[in-house]
Amino acid sequence: MDDKSFQARVFDTINLISDCLLRNGTVYVFGNGGSAADAVHISAELVGKYLIDRKALNVICLNSNTSILTALSNDYDFSTIFSRQLEAHHQDKNAVCWGISTSGNSKNVIEAFKYSKSSGIKTIGLTGQDGGELAEYSDILLNVQCSKTPFIQQLHQIIYHYICEKVEERASFL
């Protein structure tokens, strides 16, 4: 992977998220395990603040409601936990889904991206390696060239902190 290509995709991500929020859209962020913790972290930075006091941003973490997650897993299937929530909440044409999967093969993240594609929601995949199956459904793929999950997660944190900083700078004009 070319560093300039990755840098361009990071800037595309910043622009996509910023445009979504500036147009009163919703950013949905989600993942499993450590990626779920990262999704909560991202949403906290953008709903609260990263570095600048500013208006709260419309970011929803889909993996943070344990009652919904366990009900959907029990009543339907674990692979539906994010797509079903998107079906319930998706109301605007400016929405963005930001899915995190170190392997790129998390079935519930892939199902959410499939739903997103069929509903006109733009998708950002944050993965490791080649992006796995998630690469096929990502409008923007931020895949770090690493195969070790802990290192992928460390790189993800650097990337999403940078994205949060730049989105916040643009959103401070709201």
Report on the architecture of this protein:
It is a single chain. Helices cover 50% and strands 15% of the residues. The protein has 6 helices and 5 strands, in the order αβαβααβαββα. The protein has a 5-stranded parallel β-sheet with strand order 2-1-3-4-5, with helices on both faces. β1, α2 and β2 form a beta-alpha-beta unit. The protein is globular and about 45 Å long. The mean pLDDT is 96.
Short synopsis of the structure:
The chain is α/β, with parallel strands linked by helices.
Task: Draw up the topology in text.
Elements: H1 3-22, E1 27-31, H2 34-47, E2 59-61, H3 66-75, H4 83-89, E3 96-101, H5 107-119, E4 122-128, E5 140-144, H6 149-171
Parallel strand pairs: 1-2, 1-3, 3-4, 4-5
List keywords for this structure.
Rossmann fold; globular; 174 residues; 6 helices; alpha/beta; 5-stranded parallel beta sheet
